[in-house]
Design goal:
The chain has ten helices and six strands, in the order ααααααβαβαβαββαβ. By secondary structure, the protein is α/β, with parallel strands linked by helices. β1, α7 and β2 form a beta-alpha-beta unit.
């Protein structure tokens, strides 16, 4: 994904490989999504970007069904929590990923970045969290439980009042300052952190961030 985005910058903005990488990183840091910077500053059409980058990924060769993840999601009591996917990807990419993982029927809905609207809303901007709350039907921030692999996304979600777990991949160093209340290395740790949703106790709304192939 990162290589495809860098190549897109180099090709369409006529940049060197190094300059393309640097500008990509700047836009990702400034806006949460590279395409937001491209659309704002270079008049790039987001849906064209999606077609050449996200939809061009050979996901069928990269992603296989994940029975362990499916079982984790299946063990959550849906009578107590609404499962909702929250991603910075466009809808076509998000649907491909969850279909290939074999978990497309595990969520009641999805809040995604609408590349057809300018400006593009994305995590970690406040308006995107508000959009997710509305679409998921969350009655209050206290009832939102969030898991994501992005430090910034988790930090802003925690600041908003969502109960948040930051998934730190095994290939990454643990941050010096935690992004959120909880920090995990494996999604199975959610069984202990949010154990009320694996038993018949409390109610709430769980919003899960995209953690597969979405670093845009």
């Amino acid at each position: 994904m990162v290589d495809l985005i860098n190549d897109y910058f180099a090709k369409h903005l006529q940049l060197s490989a190094e300059d393309a990488k640097m500008l990509h990183q700047k836009y990702y840091k400034d806006y949460g999504l590279a395409i937001t910077g491209l659309a704002l500053h270079h008049k790039i059409v987001p849906l064209d970007f999606n077609r050449e980058v996200d939809d061009a990924l050979p996901l069928d060769d990269l992603i296989t069904p994940n029975p362990k993840l499916r079982q984790l999601l299946a063990d959550i009591d849906k009578a107590k929590v609404k499962m909702w996917l929250f991603t910075n990807a466009y809808i076509t990419h998000a649907q491909r990923v969850i279909r290939l993982l074999g978990i497309e029927d595990m969520f009641e809905g999805i809040t995604y970045c609408d590349y057809g609207r300018i400006p593009i809303l994305s995590k970690p901007h406040t308006e995107m969290y508000e959009k997710a709350e509305i679409e998921a039907g969350a009655s209050s921030v206290d009832g939102c439980f969030f898991v994501d692999d992005s430090y910034l996304n988790c930090h802003h979600a925690q600041q908003r009042g969502w109960t948040t777990a930051h998934l730190v991949e095994h290939t990454e160093m643990e941050p010096e300052v935690k992004a959120a209340k909880y920090q995990i290395r494996d999604l199975e740790e959610l069984r202990g952190i949010f154990q009320q949703f694996f038993k018949k106790l409390n109610t709430g709304s769980a919003i899960s961030g995209s953690a597969s192939c979405s670093q845009l």
